[in-house]
């Protein structure tokens, strides 16, 4: 096994016991990036010299005082919305040409304090306003979409070109590409991970979280990220720390909500079958399945768009007027459309969100987690714009991908995607586990228990 193939937990143990040095680990990941980057395009920029310097410092620190934690010397990719002092934050847009961050974002600073080594910035759909990340190819099939907007981060992790990565999630942008590339993605509770120094899409919906190869790794990274920051108005005052799941798989007493509506409507049969098999596996591990009705489902899409579109347009108001031609056509039309929405529309969306959130919390009080598909279909061919369901309903690809993930953004609850198999074309399928606010521990416990059964251990993508 090459060092780049190690998970975060395994790499941390190898570094701690001096079987692998941070220099060897980082060099291995950088070599892997050189191999796969021409084919996949996961990275917007690679900071190889800076990473090697950081790896040497980490090696010296570990040789002296020992590892300061499980991320010390571990290579990471950061979505190109996340500021790192002295490096570009391009948001994969010509609008940001020549940009250099003057200070670290909170999450970058916390990862640096934990000893993580940044190997580069990963591609995003421009300003995170899309679900495909067209610059990047799917790690399992280069002719298919990577998913977005954290497509570069998910592909880098899937291709073993980062030991872990950070993404952002406004309507599914961590979970969608993670599911489409067969890796783990965690959207924490709203306010748990500060967003200071992270380019906004929609401030009332934006989250930052980890993309990893295992649930245990997601918990390790979350532990370094969580904590109050007064520079983010949404940051919670006293969040719980990330919880590392135990080794067991016993889920006795866990109540798993299975939606009777919404989440299995207009879903590919292979996706539904794989997710239902995974839910049955949770039951075999001791969980009790409970039928739940998703409340106010008909309002979720309108509420999500009613919040995101005007907030994004407000953020981009000045640059949209100054340099409109520098935006890609798909993003520009969304930003211009947002300027046509009235204050009344936005306020009604905020009110609807309050009602949806309360109804969701009332429903979720009867269960510990809700299990459902992450996305309704696997990765589509690049350039495909619509999907036609069995009843003749036509849906845009972006709408289809965001439909099942947006509820967790509107409500702010934690949501985890874990791989649960492959479809007949050999493309990954993800199951989404959603919990109560700030109860990441239970969500991670359920995902980890499922993962440890081995039923999700499919071969790595052949890249």
UniProtKB/TrEMBL annotation:
<dbReference type="InterPro" id="IPR000120">
    <property type="entry name" value="Amidase"/>
</dbReference>
<protein>
    <submittedName>
        <fullName>Amidase family protein</fullName>
    </submittedName>
</protein>
<feature type="compositionally biased region" description="Low complexity">
    <location>
        <begin position="237"/>
        <end position="248"/>
    </location>
</feature>
<dbReference type="Pfam" id="PF01425">
    <property type="entry name" value="Amidase"/>
</dbReference>
<dbReference type="InterPro" id="IPR023631">
    <property type="entry name" value="Amidase_dom"/>
</dbReference>
<feature type="region of interest" description="Disordered">
    <location>
        <begin position="231"/>
        <end position="250"/>
    </location>
</feature>
<dbReference type="InterPro" id="IPR020556">
    <property type="entry name" value="Amidase_CS"/>
</dbReference>
<feature type="domain" description="Amidase">
    <location>
        <begin position="24"/>
        <end position="444"/>
    </location>
</feature>
<dbReference type="InterPro" id="IPR036928">
    <property type="entry name" value="AS_sf"/>
</dbReference>
